[in-house]
Amino acid sequence: MVVTRIAPSPTGDPHVGTAYIALFNYVWARKNGGRFIVRIEDTDRARYVPGAEERILAALRWLGIPYDEGPDVGGPHGPYRQSERLPLYRAHAEELLKRGWAYRAFETPEELERIRQEKGGYDGRARNIPPEEAEERARRGEPHVIRLKVPRPGTTEVRDELRGVVVYDNEEIPDVVLLKSDGYPTYHLANVVDDHLMGVTDVIRAEEWLVSTPIHVLLYRAFGWEAPRFYHMPLLRNPDKTKISKRKSHTSLEWYKKEGFLPEALRNYLGLMGFSMPDGREIFTLEEMIAAFSWERVSLGGPVFDLEKLRWMNGKYIREVLPLEEVARRVKPFLEEVGLSWPDEAYLLRAVELMRPRFDTLKEFVEKAQYLFREDYPLGEKALAKLMEGMDFLPELEARLKALPEWKEEALEALFRAFAQEKGLKLGQVAQPVRAALTGVLETPGLFEVMALLGRERVLARLERARALVKA
């Protein structure tokens, strides 16, 4: 059975890069009828952020990437938090000592810094300590770490399923720390031990981890375990081709949720980062991606995470993919967050229908449609100038609107056309001042559709308010 995983560290905001890698792990597991695991790698206590784990899991749930086992899911071996598995890692580090694949090193932080300055990195000097002496010093409680003993000379081959075989000179592979002096494992030891014990068959991760893979291959060899298949995905890039980072891009998944991006659209867009559908289409469901997925369709070129392209895709989902009722349901929390309300569901549905071609995110709907939900909407400078152009005829137009027998779009349009013709004006010369008065802006859905939605009472009150503002 194919088993994949992601192993985020709870050190900050849930990252879009985590979601990207999680998506491909999930797709590959489902493609093969396998399992997808979430494991929280929380052994770096200096960088641990309280609450970050819950936020990561919540972001994955929001994004619609379900996992079979993880910190909040009961499974045959879960939950998975590395901080709860410390005795396991220590036992495996001790096993490596017995097998001659590791050694104890007793340098102080100050000594290590001096070695780094002189040698450019740790030079393996503790290899020369006789094992009996090292064990005695450890028994006496002398602080130390356990390091990997890389075989030298020699080479280590890494087979990457996307890149082929990469050969590393063992002289370039450091004797990395496996178990720190505080008893916590480093990424390398915990990662390999957990992947093996959890039955992970396919390690799919970002290409920045490729340089660490020879260390992991050596650890698998040291334990006598079969290594998983490795796939190192291309890194997400900013439009300037640099690695995506919060200095240049929005990397927090929570930001995208707060801004009103749809999880389906963001997930779809992440699927385009390195992968292409056989028919070239860009809009596809998760199920369609799973059905069409193959590693041959994954490109190693650095995929560019373009926010404008994501906005375009989000707009396509709003207008063409989600049912109108679903879009209306999803804008509700954004309206409520800023204290806006609506008379009934039919009103909200019609408001969303009118605005649908004009917004690309749920938050943008609230920003652009606020005049449909509040009476104290602002009147922009351009709108005010346009309103003043109609001050001469607005009182008379108001009177005719009051007397209009039927308050419907067709009747409103007929009244405006007749009024414009009578006054020797173009329709726009009459409509635009009214639009400015009713909405505070000059770009809206059709004026008569807006007026029909607002209703006679609100339209007349707004026209009166606008004229009072100009006179003031």
Can you characterise this structure?
The protein is mainly α and 472 residues long. It has 4 domains: 1-70 and 234-321, HUPs (Rossmann fold, 3-Layer(aba) Sandwich); 86-179, Alpha-Beta Complex (Glutamyl-tRNA Synthetase, domain 3); 323-371, Helicase, Ruva Protein, domain 3 (Orthogonal Bundle), CATH 1.10.8; 375-471, Arc Repressor Mutant, subunit A. Helix content is 47%, strand content 9%. It is built from 20 helices and 9 strands. The strands form 4 sheets. It has a 3-stranded antiparallel β-sheet with strand order 3-4-7. A two-stranded parallel sheet has the order 1-2. Strand 8 (202-206), helix 7 and strand 9 (229-233) form a beta-alpha-beta unit. The longest helix is centred in the first third of the chain and has 16 residues, at 16-31.
SSE string, helix = H, strand = E? Answer: EHEHHEHHEEEEHEHEHHHHHHHHHHHHH
What is the percentage of strand-forming residues? 5-15%
Strand count, sense and barrel status of the largest sheet are: 3 strands, antiparallel
Task: Provide the number of structural domains.
Answer: 4
> What would you say the CATH architecture of the largest domain is?
3-Layer(aba) Sandwich
Quote the CATH topology of the largest domain: Rossmann fold
Mean pLDDT, all residues: 95
| Helix-residue proportion | 40-55%
Biggest β-sheet: strands ordered side by side in the sheet: 3-4-7
E-strand count: 9
Structural class: mainly alpha
Rounded Rg: 31 Å
Helical segment tally?
Answer: 20
Distance between the ends: 75 Å
Subcellular location: Cytoplasm
Subunit structure: Monomer.
GO molecular function: ATP binding; glutamate-tRNA ligase activity; tRNA binding; zinc ion binding
Catalytic activity: tRNA(Glu) + L-glutamate + ATP = L-glutamyl-tRNA(Glu) + AMP + diphosphate
